[in-house]
Amino acid sequence: MYKLITASFCLLFFWACSTSPQEQPDSEEKGVQDIDVQVFKSKMHEKDIVVLDVRTPREIRNGKIANALEINVNGPDFESKIAQLDKSKTYLVYCAAGLRSQKACKKMEAAGFKKLYNLESGYTGWKAAGN
Q1: Measured distance CA(50)–CA(117) in Å, rounded
Q2: End-to-end distance of the chain based on CA atoms, in angstroms?
Q3: Is the pTM of this model over 0.85?
């Protein structure tokens, strides 16, 4: 009898803890998402998009994605500059290889930004894809 009750409790517990597909948050609610070059490029054509380059000015002199806003994530004024941005917009963020942009996205998420996409391969991946 105890084995049956224990087994029933375990099944009930695991069933209650599982999340059905309808309960999964949609992509707009996830905060920071890592995306590849193809998805990044397609999202650039959506409404209310800001492409954000978080590399250093020296790196940017060697090329950047057209019309990208430039804010150095390691600059002393990064937080004050992002505070001036519209939090309702969607931000496509990139650096050289995807690590600093992930850092920038986390800082932006902590500041209240909701729609953040990190180019996981960075500008290096962007150029390698022929852009």
Answers
A1: 10
A2: 66
A3: no
pLDDT digits (tens, 9 = 90+) for 73-117: 999 999 999 999 999 999 999 999 999 999 999 999 999 999 999
Does domain 31-128 fall under CATH 3.40.250.10? My reply is: yes
- In the chain, where the domains are located: 31-128
Annotate the chain with three-state secondary structure: CHHHHHHHHHHHHHHHHCCCHHHCCCHHHCEEEEECHHHHHHHCCCCCEEEEECCCHHHHCCCCCCCCEECCCCCCCHHHHHCCCCCCCEEEEECCCCHHHHHHHHHHHHCCCCEEEEECCHHHHHHHCCC
pLDDT in tens, 31-42: 799 999 999 999
CB count within 10 Å of CB 33 equals 14
Sign of the four-CA dihedral 59, 60, 61, 62: positive
The amino acid at residue 79 is E
Query: Which is nearest to 43 in space by CA: 98, 102, 86, 93?
Result: 93
